[in-house]
Amino acid sequence: MEKFYTSLGLMSGTSMDGVDASVIRSDGENNYEPIFDKYFEYDEVIYSDLLNLRDKINLIKDLTSNSYQIRELERKITLFHAKISKEIIKHSGIDVDLVGFHGQTIFHNIQEKISKQIGDGNLLSSLLKKDVVYNFRENDILNGGQGAPLAPIFHNLLVNQNQIEKPVCVLNVGGIANITLVISKNNEDLKSFDVGPGNCLLDEWVRRHTKMKYDVNGESSSIGKTSEVILNQAIDNFDNISNQKKLSFDIKDFDLSFVKGLSYEDGLSTLVDFTAIIIYQSILRSIKIKENEKLLIMVCGGGRKNLSLIKSIRKRLPKNIFLKVIDDYKIDGDFIESQAFAYLAIRSMLKKEISYPKTTNVQNPCIGGILVKNY
Asked: C-alpha angle with apex 178: 199 to 146, nearest 5 degrees?
């Protein structure tokens, strides 16, 4: 019988606004139990520092020229993660065996074979007196992979443990949108990749025009009017041929220039439809099913709360493809990524693979993460 471990997963995504924290119990294989989930918002100083730093880093050389700022912010980020982890452990009474520490991505460029997450795993382990797994992406990249997406094997576990009928396409709409096609229990059968922008263009447009961080429930975009001319031109310009070779994206692969002349609401509406079309076209192109076959798309991530985006995707799908939010299956769609990294930490500690050729394009099934032992 497999041993079960209690693992705390800490995930901060491309929105850079805070940390999702989850505690799960799992054997690192076919079983998991969610125990605790909570979101912790960054203070305004960390949030603005992260956005400013990301704006400065466009090339590898920028990592060197901004090294002092990166080190200072890495320490702040790590201290924040330590503080919330201690709070979770103290107030919940949960004694965790290890911590999965994703860190904050500030640069991802697969052509240059680099994905940089800031977060000091050694410092976090020292502060918490716990084993910590961090730097999940590097080994995959060193072995020919693209370092992302890494959640697919957890998507597989979710689908199979909850006995959801397959085939299932798990659509995660974070800053970047990615899909995982689950057809069996076998991790090697998974097919996964980033499809394009998720929330990143929408959130950036909101930040530029308001003091808000995102369009709550898609309300502003719902009263805007899409510019069909600009939308069609933007879709034509989206380089699908080269992008098909790319399994992972960075938010800097996309820009807002095509909507800059529109009003706030019309720009949002146009960006919603642009994002929706890229997502639905990618799903149809990559998942070949016959007209009489059914396919379920389960949506997780923050984008599932943007009702305008969900409506725009749904209205374009063929009648045999059904789109539901993952919460309909009594799974909390806000914490899939943080639970995933809690699960990946267990697998990393046990020297089990976390990425596969059809999920990241890695040459062979690959272990990942660096384990810092608390001696």
From this structure: 115
CA-based radius of gyration for the chain: 20
Helix (H), strand (E) at residue 304: none
**Dist CA 290 CA 288 (whole Å):** 7
Global pTM value: 0.94
Would you give the distance in Å from CA 110 to the centre of its chain? 16
Share of the chain above pLDDT 90, in %: 85
3-state secondary structure 223-263: CCCCCHHHHHHHHHHCCHHHHCCCCCCCHHHCCCHHHCCCC
| Contact yes or no for 173/303 (Cβ under 8 A) | yes
Rounded distance, CA 345 to CA 136, Å? Answer: 9
Measured CA to CA, the distance from residue 375 to residue 78 in angstroms comes to: 19
Burial class from Cβ neighbours inside 10 Å (0-12, 13-18, 19+) for residue 215 reads buried
pLDDT in tens, 70-115: 999 999 999 999 999 999 999 888 899 999 999 999 999 888 889 9
Directed axis angle between helix 336-349 and helix 152-161, to 10°? 100
44-to-17, 175, 207, 332, 337 alpha-carbon distances in Å = 9, 19, 14, 27, 23
Classified as helix, coil or strand, 58 is coil
CA distances from 196 to 222, 302, 340, 353 (A): 22, 15, 21, 26
- 8 Å CB contact between 203 and 214: yes
Residue pair 355/145 in contact by the 8 Å Cβ criterion: yes
Residue 293: pLDDT band with limits 50, 70, 90 = confident
Do 85 and 8 form a contact (C-beta atoms < 8 A)?
yes
